[in-house]
Amino acid sequence: MDRKIDSDVIRAERRRRLIKYISIIAIIVAVMWTGISMVGTSVNRRDLTIASVDNGPLEITVPASGRVVPAYEEIVNSPVTTRIMKVYAQPGDTVKAGTPLLQLDLEQEETALDKLIDSRTIGQQELEQLRLSHRTLLSDLEMQIEVSEMQASRLSIEVINERRLDSIGSGTGDRVRQAETAYATAVLQLRQLRTKLENERMRTVAAEQVQQLGMSNIDKDIMLKQRTLEQGRIPAPSDGIITFLITEIGSQVNAGERVAVVSDLSQFRISAEVPEGSSNKVEIGAEVNVRIGQTIIRGCVTNITPQAKAGVVSFMVRLDDPRNSRLRSGLRTDLYVTYGYKDNVTRIPSGPFFKGPGDYSLFVMDGDSRLVKRQVKLGDSNREYIEVTDGLMPGDRVAVNDMERYRTKRKLGIR
After folding, report:
1. How many CA atoms lie within 13 A of 412 on its CB side?
2. Span 130-155, pLDDT tens digits
């Protein structure tokens, strides 16, 4: 006969089974949570760029941005304030030196030139009249001097005669003194006329020089106006391609305003900019690597703008290969200006994460299936390598791609 099972035993068995089921569920939840957690903090191996830390030389560069511009171009400015009458060419046209590009309204300039020519004609006539007047005046003075010389010569003879008569008793002392006084007066008058003639000669020369100077100034104004009229027809200053041209007929242009640019598109250079804070690292003659896609073109800095504008300093780069087929006018480029060299440093390949010297949190390989975040201090750089000053050792493997999305993670699994 079966015995009835005690109720306490039944309850104990039920608790044991309940605890067993709860434990199994907890294990399952923990495994699932771990799996979910691992999925949420893992990264695909194909999405990683892993680079090894090593030792080697470092050519220190400062990054800059630039734009490809023609090596030679000439800007044509309007010589006067006027309006455009005709357009003979279009941007993109290939032209020869002297080819007309635009026709400006030059009616006022032509009128001003005619007035200058009339003024010169009047001035030339006034100069001739002045010369004639001076010749007449000088001729009169020369005649007066000849007459005075004859009078002085006659009075000199009278003085001699009176002295001779007085010596033989036929004359008197008063007559001798009168003759001597008359002769002395004639000599003074002759000297006065000669001095006047000399002064008049100098005065007339000076007056004619003043008039000639005025004529010379008018000639210069005429030449300037003629040159302005020649420039006002806006000929091409050299062989090349028109890269800029005002083509709106009737539009107003001011004196000195750019109306055309003719460029030589067979050769190029780089117009570059660097942040003002890095401008002290850019010097004339510094080597430059210009990057266009995967192509590197070397060059050097030729001149630097002395003042910063909008937080950047501009400089020009002359290229070793200015005719490279990759060069196109207006193309944006990346530049690396060399300003130093270190012989043996710890370094890692450059990556998009690098923004300049300072502290970084980088993910370092820990085995083959995990990345661990590590604090690293980075220093100088170039387009290929970055100097490591602390936090990494040669042989370490580092993720050098952009890991910004994982900035809150300390460890990452690798799928």
Report:
1. 24
2. 888 888 888 888 898 888 889 888 88
Q: How far is CA 269 from the centre of its chain?
A: 13
d(CA 177, CA 104): 85
CA–CA distance, 120 with 118 (Å, rounded to integer) = 5
Q: pTM for this one?
A: 0.54
Would you give the end-to-end CA distance of the chain in angstroms?
64
If you count them, how many residues does the chain have? 415
| Residue 378 near residue 400, CB atoms below 8 Å | no
Q: How far apart are CA 395 and CA 362, in angstroms?
A: 15
H-run or E-run covering 35? helix 7-40
Q: Record the tokens describing residue 63, joined without a space.
A: 């990054």
At how many degrees (to 10) do helices 173-232 and 107-167 cross? 170
- DSSP strands (E only) in 279-331: 287-292, 295-304, 312-319
On whether the CB atoms of residues 101 and 245 are closer than 8 A, the answer is yes
Q: How far is CA 145 from CA 154, 187, 202, 264, 412, in A?
A: 14, 11, 17, 74, 120
CB 396 within 8 A of CB 372: no
* CA-based nearest residue to 102, from 287, 200, 234: 234
Q: What is the pLDDT of residues 260-271, one digit of tens each?
A: 999 888 899 999
CA distances, 280 to each of 71, 205, 339 (Å)? 25, 62, 10
233 DSSP 8-state letter: T
Burial of 288 (0-12, 13-18, 19+ CB in 10 A): buried
Q: Identify any residues that bridge with 319 across adjacent strands, giving them in sequence order.
A: 299
Rounded to whole angstroms, how far apart are CA atoms 83 and 252? 4
Residue 244 has pLDDT above 50, yes or no: yes
Side chain identity, residue 120: R
- Which of 38-47, 100-109, 122-131, 346-355 has the lowest average pLDDT? 38-47
Rounded to 10 degrees, the C-alpha dihedral 138/143/147/150 comes to 100
Alpha-helix residue ranges (DSSP H) falling in 71-172: 107-167
The Cβ of residue 90 has, within 10 Å, a number of other Cβ atoms equal to: 10
Single-letter amino acid code for the residue at 38: M
Neighbours of 97 (CB within 10 A): 12
Secondary-structure percent of the chain, ordered helix, strand, coil, rounded to 5: 40, 35, 25
Is residue 380 left, alpha or beta, with left meaning phi > 0 and alpha meaning psi from -120 to 50? beta
311-335, pLDDT tens digit by residue? Answer: 899 999 999 999 998 998 889 999 9
The CA-atom distances, in angstroms, between 242 and each of 169, 235, 237, 254, 267 are 109, 12, 11, 21, 15
